[in-house]
TrEMBL record:
One of its GO terms (molecular function) is transferase activity. Keywords: Membrane, Transferase, Transmembrane, Transmembrane helix. The chain crosses the membrane at residues 20-36, 71-90, 102-121, 141-164, 171-188, 200-223, 244-265, 285-304, 316-333, 339-358, 365-388, 413-432, 444-466. Coiled coil: none annotated. It comes from the Bacteria. It comes from Serpentinimonas maccroryi. This is 4-amino-4-deoxy-L-arabinose transferase and related glycosyltransferase of PMT family.
Length: 574
């Protein structure tokens, strides 16, 4: 039985967002966070260290490592992309060269989400109601308008901004998940070229496998096949050949990755149940789901309710199954935001299909919430920046000085100018949205997408120096380098990959792990994490060393590095 569509869309409402607006918004979203930003702690710096070592030693391509410690646990492909860029662009700073492939991956995520929504919106079950006297939306125009809305919905997700702008495995996985969603959306159309669909799908599955997520690739294949068996069957689609080919393109790279014994120990099964027996874990997951998926989660829930009678249509069933599978994977990985990130493209697709069913009052509520939230956030960003520059208001300035005692703010015109222009543009968007214009499907998400783009851009312009200082390890690494004699090496103990990479990149130091061999005798400095000091004694004779300085990352008492110098009377130096 065919149930009536809940979507009521006129031809006027199905007009597409002007292309120059869409491209400008996309560039403003992608570029901040890459241009001018130093690599920050954790994944950013750790990946950079491995990429630089790989670019310097191409023979290690199958064994990416940092100081001899293998890095296979999070995948090959991101390292390869960054190392290739560093090797091919030696005139650029290494971190800027390494960021270029990940800018392209974020752009691929946005493009793939647009095309996935476009193909899903052209499904028969996704079409709006046909008016008795004509005037309903043309299928192609409707699909383009929905695709614009899906792209805006993805950009509006709060959880996308930080993780997708890092030079890490997460940006690669996200891009290949979105690419797989695009390929599956194409597979439901018999008139589209099968070879192109299979090429997109094969690239997505190989990319996921080489990015350390073969299990995610198999999970997506399972969700897609469930959608085919449970959904509305279209006999015009070459289902047998298509299913077999897509299954093979997912199973082969995943099987190859697992066949070589990697990633071994990628999941701590015995620790999952004890983790979720704690009430704090559920509270943390609830908070993560609430802010990370805002505002798409609410719109997706509305979609599931309004389109419930068309639940077997591919535009609803496949994104829903992928979303549920990735939510399950997030649960299995103890509420990891890096796994939840992969669910955002499917969530944005579901959110877009809520727009044809929203009443004017609901759309106005979304606009008002977005306007208030992002306007208030922008005002706070500007107030704190003014306080850093002038000392007024006093309280924000004192808070910044307390958090970052070694940071000296300076006015930088090349950062202030784009921030001022974007703020004026935001006021123009508000004026346009509150004016009287013809309805459009995507209008309810313009303020949300523009607002998150504004705030992200303000943070990465006005606050860029303070964020580089607070989120990076350059100041600490440079202070350690200043304590080290020229052309000498440094021993390290208990430092994580990102800390070692910071000493190498920002400090320009030759770093060695303690090995207990004769090579250790040539290093006059030893850097130890304060947490690992208790494990230092079995590794080295502490009578040969004296504490030179304690170097806190930001302020005393937090993330302290202990810098030791070799005693002058050390017999190993004679």
């Amino acid at each position: 039985m065919n149930h009536p569509s809940p979507a009521l869309v006129s031809q006027h409402a199905a007009r597409r967002l002007p292309r120059w607006v869409l491209w400008t918004l996309g560039l403003l979203y992608v570029l901040p966070g890459f241009i001018g930003r130093d690599p920050w702690r954790n994944a950013d710096l750790a990946s950079l260290g491995v990429m630089r070592e790989l670019a310097a030693h191409p023979g290690q391509w199958l064994h990416p490592q940092l100081l001899g410690e293998t890095a296979l646990g999070i995948g090959w492909l991101p390292y390869w992309l960054g190392a290739l860029a560093i090797y091919a662009l030696p005139w650029l700073p290494a971190h800027q060269a390494a960021q270029l492939p990940f800018m392209a991956l974020l752009a691929l995520t946005l493009i793939s989400t647009w095309y996935a929504a476009y193909h899903f919106a052209r499904q028969p079950g996704a079409q709006p109601v046909v008016f008795a006297f004509g005037g309903q939306a043309h299928p192609t125009h409707y699909a383009r308008a929905l695709a614009d809305a899906a792209l805006l919905a993805l950009m509006a997700c709060l959880g996308l901004a930080l993780l997708a702008h890092q030079s890490s495995v997460d940006a690669a996985r996200l891009a290949f998940v979105a690419l797989g969603l695009w390929a599956y959306a194409r597979s439901f159309h018999s008139e589209l070229r099968l070879s192109t669909t299979l090429a997109l799908w094969g690239l997505a599955m190989a990319g996921l496998a080489l990015s350390g997520a073969p299990g995610i690739a198999l999970l997506l294949l399972l969700g897609g096949e469930c959608a085919r068996w449970c959904g509305t069957f279209n006999p015009a689609i070459p289902s047998q050949a298509l299913r077999g080919s897509m299954a093979g393109l997912a199973l082969v790279p995943a099987a190859l990755v697992y066949a070589i014994g990697w990633p071994a120990g990628w999941l701590d099964w015995p620790g999952i149940l004890p983790h979720w027996q704690l009430g704090a874990s559920w509270e943390s997951l609830a908070r993560l789901l609430l802010w990370f998926t805002w505002p798409c989660a609410l719109l997706a829930a509305w979609t599931l309710w309004k389109w419930r009678r068309q639940w077997r249509s591919p535009h609803l069933l496949l994104p829903l199954l992928w979303l549920l599978g990735l939510l399950l994977a997030t649960f299995v990985h103890r509420g990891s935001d890096r796994i939840l990130l992969l669910a955002l493209p499917a969530l944005a697709l579901l959110a877009a299909f809520a727009l044809p069913t929203l009443s004017r009052s609901a759309a106005a509520l979304i606009d008002w919430l977005a306007m208030l939230l992002f306007s208030a956030s922008a005002i706070i960003i500007w107030i704190i920046w003014v306080a850093m520059m002038t000392g007024v208001p006093a309280e924000p300035a004192e808070n910044v000085a307390k958090l970052l005692p070694n940071f000296v703010p300076q006015f930088e015109a090349h950062l202030f100018a784009p921030a001022a222009i974007l703020t004026l543009a935001w006021l123009g968007v508000i004026a346009w949205r509150t004016g009287r214009h013809q309805p459009a499907l995507w209008k309810s998400l313009v303020l949300s997408a523009s607002g998150i783009t504004l705030c992200w851009s303000l943070l990465l312009t006005l606050w860029l120096p303070v964020l580089n200082h607070g989120m990076g390890l350059a100041p600490t690494s440079q202070r350690v380098a200043a304590l080290t004699p020229a052309q000498q090496c440094v021993l390290v103990h208990g430092l994580a990959h990102e800390q070692i990479a910071a000493l190498q990149y920002h400090g320009g130091l030759r770093v060695q792990r303690i090995s207990g061999g004769a090579a250790d005798a040539h290093c006059p400095r030893l850097v130890v994490s304060s947490e690992a000091f208790v494990t230092l004694h079995p590794q080295i004779n502490l009578r040969q060393w004296q504490l030179l300085r304690e170097e806190p990352r930001l302020r005393p008492g937090r993330d302290v590095w202990l810098v030791f110098e070799r005693r002058p009377g050390d017999p190993t130096q004679q």
